[in-house]
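Ticket #4471: structure output looks truncated?

Reporter: J.K.
Steps to reproduce: submitted the chain below (334 residues) through the standard prediction queue, then opened the result file.
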Amino acid sequence: MKKEDIKALELALSSPKKIAIIPHRSPDGDAMGSTLALYHFLIKLNHIPTVIAPNDFPDFLAWIPGSESVMIFEKDKEAATRVLKEADIVFTLDFNALHRTGEMEHVLNKLESVFVMIDHHQSPDNYAQFTYSDTQFGSTCEMIFNFIEALGKKELIDKTIATCIYTGILTDSGSFRFPKTTGTTHRIIADLIDIGAENTTIPILLFDNNSYDRLQLLGRALQNMKVFPDYKTTYISLSQKELDEFHYVKGDTEGIVNYGLTIKGIIFAAIFIEHKDENIIKISFRSQGDFDVNQFARDHFQGGGHINAAGGKSNLSLADTIAKFDKLLSEIKI
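Returned output as attached by the reporter:
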């Protein structure tokens, strides 16, 4: 973020404000970690912050400090809208286009509040008066750490804030395996551990609290995997019937797409999940090396994200979506 913007925000944050903090729809570990880290930080500055998530977050993130205070827009639109309209400042974290908030977009577009964007995705929109956007970072949580440091308030990062930041960096870095994990990332992690983030406990809370049904769903997903060695590609599909069979709850399919990339020689992996309640097929793409799944998702599946991790959707049937993907495989170079 530019020095003049930091100074302007320092001034704006020098007196108590009502502040709304927004993650993207279907928030992940980085979205929840960054919003809650900022929430706890702003409380220390005597502000009145409220985290408003467009829809509910997965149960495996419900242990993050402060998660019980998060307002869910879909569950109480009237109260959430009131908080948004009263906000002096709106922070939008881990996304860069207001449509990523679903129905909340209609409310956000009408606000006269000061908007602050902190995000690491490509092609940001220009809705914010203050923008900290940098695709070189592997997570928004790492940017939140830098933001707090830039404000000269690093000493306010306590165990609670460190835990939130650690969570987002851990999840968005693929447990520190993805290319944007740098030496600086590890130095920040070291600081967070020294402050009190429990690096042996957090991964257990995130990854080792599976239900029996989730493991059964994972087994079915792996059974459904299709591998195309000639295209260095694999994909998984899950129908609504299969989700229902294994009592799917939000978050159960998190990370399944990554299994495809563990196969020797595979560079491109996808998962197609049928959600009949929304009448869409939700899609996740992952890649290794230079294959740009962000551009692929933008070009063909109404999505986007990062070079090696992106999402999309399809309004076709599950079978027709997969057929479209199969056709595209023969047309692209991997």
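Triage note (M.O.): checked the attachment and the full token line is present. Residues 62 and 68 are 7 Å apart (CA to CA).
Status: closed, working as intended.
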